[in-house]
Design a protein that fits this description.
elongated; 7-stranded antiparallel beta sheet; 186 residues
């Protein structure tokens, strides 16, 4: 790489730093917590009949999450209790690569990731985008607007690797995951 190319690279980095690509972290955190609450509402809604009959008890408590650029903030953790079982939904955060948020759902027999992703994505492999850069060229960002303006974010379960496919968070998958995490049933 030449001195001129390196200078162009540094100038591009400065431009990025000063440009409109800055993230509003206060808004990002607010949206994340709203999506987290919506996830808990979906799960609670699927389990409401079992709560009313006393077969399931759902609790929430506040935990502290610490994220780069956001800092420390409180978020709700959900616990589903039944018989002698406990399933915990632990929020991880919003400052992630490839997802707008993540919650780990765990029980006696393991854990499952729930991620907030672009609804068009079918799996982790859809997140990978490969582009070629000619030798002696300076990488440039796309100039066709903010692609996140058109994203519809949805919560999805992530299946085990290597497939790592996304499955919707709905009544059927919620019941299946709870059963899997509580007694190893698949």
């Amino acid at each position: 790489m030449t001195k001129k190319e390196f200078d162009l690279f540094l100038s591009a980095k400065e431009k990025d730093l000063k440009g409109d690509t800055k993230i509003d972290w206060v808004d990002r955190k607010k949206q994340w917590l709203e999506y987290l609450n919506a996830l808990y509402e979906v799960i609670g809604g699927c389990l409401i009949d079992f709560q009313q009959t006393g077969k399931i008890n759902i609790k929430k408590d506040s935990i502290e999450i610490i994220e780069e650029n956001i800092g420390s903030y409180p978020a709700d953790r959900m616990t589903i209790e039944f018989a002698d079982e406990k399933i915990t939904l632990q929020p991880i955060g919003t400052n992630l690569i490839g997802a707008r948020g993540r919650v780990d759902m765990s029980g006696k027999y393991g854990s499952v990731k729930i991620v907030l992703v672009d609804s068009r994505m079918k799996g982790i492999r859809d997140q990978i985008r490969i582009s070629t850069v000619e030798r002696n060229s300076v990488p440039q960002k796309e100039i066709d607007g903010n692609p996140e303006e058109f994203v519809k974010w949805e919560w999805r379960f992530v299946s085990a690797p290597p497939a790592s496919l996304y499955q919707p968070v709905n009544e059927e998958t919620i019941y299946s995951v709870i059963m899997e995490l509580s007694n190893g049933y698949k």
